[in-house]
Amino acid sequence: MKTIKHIAAGLNAAALALFMTGCQNLEVVNDPTGEGVSDPLEMRLETGFTTGNGTKAVTRAGEGMINGSTLAKTLDIALARVNEKAGGYDAQWGTAQLDATIETTKKVTFDKKQYYSPAGLKTKLIGWYPATDATYNNADGGNATVSWTAIDGKTDLLVSDLREGSKANPFTAEHTNVLTFDHLLTQIQIKAYALSQEEADIWGEVDKITITGKKETCKITLPATSGSSGDKCVPSFTADSDGVLELVKEDPTNNTPLSDMTVGVSVANASDGKGDGSDKATVAKLWGYAMFSPVAAQGSLTLTIHFKAGGTKEVVIQGASTGNPLYTNGLRAGYSHLVYLKFGLSEEDEIVPEVEITDWIEGDEIEIPV
């Protein structure tokens, strides 16, 4: 759920290039016209995972974060296609999606080969990831849509913009005509620490963390076939059942399960025997991560800490509209945020979490008193 921020792809007689956060290659094919085309030009696909800020982790469907340069398993993607005819484009995208697999060799193999249209006619493409558990409908109330059932917190969703290409103007970076994939979801990772062992122990063991309103379904509406290159899909999110999403208790870098949710303790360096928290980056304990729909700067995100002995504690990450001048952008799609929970004692002996958000892409830090 890595973090990939963009993927670009291009198709031509030799290559369709996709650029993401890491490194990969692909291949395609299918003759949708069914015509006996002389000298057909096959579309071929290569992929890469790159950002301007260095290699980032890449999220695979349901399996947390992986490194894009060392794929351990294949990835499933799909595309929709529509071909220009003598009278223009059809009003609907193709009936069937084009399934493809990114192999561990970093090549993409489509189930059926794809060719450019003959006689100078053009083709439009748009893609999404993952293809697994997605439902494509090219006639959903007059629109083409792709739907995913309940967001599980550990599956990333990516969609591309619309691109138009042809034999004369193939889908390649060389022709400045590439598919660009963007994240639909944002991501948080949660770590916990305290300034003393007493403060770490007093609240007892933590069982889980839930995120209010973030168990959702997602549907994207594809641009109309009359759209132009660069047009984007429109996502919508709808609460699923009670809407409560549970934090995924795994390390997102390697999918390793986390056995417990203990609180790290800052090393004492003061006369009162407490640490000052300056070492939180090394002592804080990772509790897990989750990916879900973005949170606007004017909104807020509610985390609920559930204790094994019973009882809960809510932690609210407030948006800019509620008085936090640092939280100006919200939790944006395509960004991963590190949230520190600082366990301490107030005069009322309540837990006093402190939330700090680190943006993986820009490296901004935000401290939010809760």
What's the gist of this structure?
This protein has 370 residues and is mainly β. The chain has 2 helices and 30 strands.
What is the secondary structure topology, with strand pairs?
Layout: E1 6-9, E2 17-20, E3 27-30, E4 46-49, E5 57-59, E6 65-67, E7 75-85, E8 88-89, E9 98-102, E10 108-114, E11 123-129, E12 134-140, E13 143-148, E14 158-160, E15 163-165, E16 179-183, E17 186-194, H1 197-201, E18 206-211, E19 216-221, E20 234-239, E21 245-246, E22 250-251, E23 256-257, E24 264-265, H2 280-283, E25 285-292, E26 300-307, E27 312-318, E28 336-343, E29 354-359, E30 365-369
Parallel strand pairs: 2-4, 3-10, 17-24, 17-28
Antiparallel strand pairs: 1-16, 5-6, 7-8, 7-9, 7-11, 9-10, 11-14, 11-15, 12-13, 13-19, 14-16, 17-25, 18-21, 18-26, 19-20, 22-23, 26-27, 28-29, 29-30
Architecture overview:
With 370 residues, the chain is mainly beta. It has two helices and 30 strands. A hairpin with a 5-residue loop joins strand 5 (57-59) and strand 6.
Number of extended strands: 30
Helix count from the secondary structure assignment: 2
Main sheet record? 10 strands, mixed
The helicity comes to: under 10%
| Measured distance between first and last alpha carbons | 26 Å
Low-confidence stretches: 1-33, 45-61, 65-69, 347-370
Principal-axis shape equals elongated
Rg, Cα atoms, Å = 23 Å
Report the β-strand fraction as a percent range. Answer: 35-45%
**Classification by helices and strands:** mainly beta
Q: What value does the average pLDDT take? A: 74
